[in-house]
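User: Here's a chain of 353 residues. Predict its fold as tokens.
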Amino acid sequence: MNDLECKNPFFELLTCGKGLNYYRNIYNIPNYMKFDDLYVNDPRNISNLKDLTDSFAKDLFVPFIGAGPSTTLGEPNWSDLFDQLCKALNVKNVRKSKLSNGTVDYPKTFSRLFNKNLDKNRFYEKLFEVIEPKKTSATWFHKRLVQVFDSYITTNYDSPIEEAFIDVHPKRNLKKQYFSCYGLNNISNCIVYLHGHKDINFCIIKSDDYDYFYPSISKKPGIPIVEDFLTKVFTERSVIFIGFSFKDKYIEEFLRSLNLSTQLRYSHYWIISESAEIYKEIDEKVKKHMKRGENFEADNELNNFYNGKMNIKPIVYKDKWDIFPQRLFEKLVETNPVAIKPGVISAMPESSL
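Assistant: Prediction complete.
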């Protein structure tokens, strides 16, 4: 056990007093596995990671949580969500809309399903029933997340961050906001459900919804409440994307536009696995260049990738070690210690992004 594990009550709390070695045995994590062994050993990747840990401050950084951490809760992916929702609504023969690259355009596809359903409220009621966690209400990922940060942004419609926050901080109130927190002075002890939540029986899931809430991208009438909030966050905070794929074309296009039009003060970071599609594509290009002896071109591919699009720097971890985000949180606690009173929490399975 290293000095950090011995001295910081964070670890006693998170492991129910059993220590990290206990959980390393359960999850087949070798005792010799160091933090440095968990991420891709490229100097550019290491540089991005160092930038993050060196600049980390709890009141400056905000985690942006995508769908990745929710998969271990037993929630459906987009394809299964569509199929299960069709069944729950007893609607058949809804054709899936496709993008130019052949992948499914889920916002348009859910719009078609919505339009085939006469009871619009029932659409959302069944949707939120389908995405209820089937395995557990939260994971160790969420536990560690709420120990390190006290403000959260998510495009998910579920509540594991809330569940973890209540369990870990029973005497603190977590504010819930939808689409925006109406000024960053309100973001402390707050979770922003950027795309809606079951509490309001609405979520941004259809193409019409995206068009309305991202009017600068759709070029259609709407309200810029989400866009204004994202602009504020990205200009005044550092954002860490976790479990986020950037397949959401509206968010990606908005952030791309924001990066071109606004002087961003801070760097942002993107925690991804080496099995992520974008990294696999880069890796494949690099291998082809190397095979042809094009070392300069291969190096350029990696430089462009690690320099980050939209001022968002990727940090790539090895696919075998999905515990990297949690171990990263430990590293950030070491950088910016959090005062925690030891206590007993319910055991939850380790998450896998």
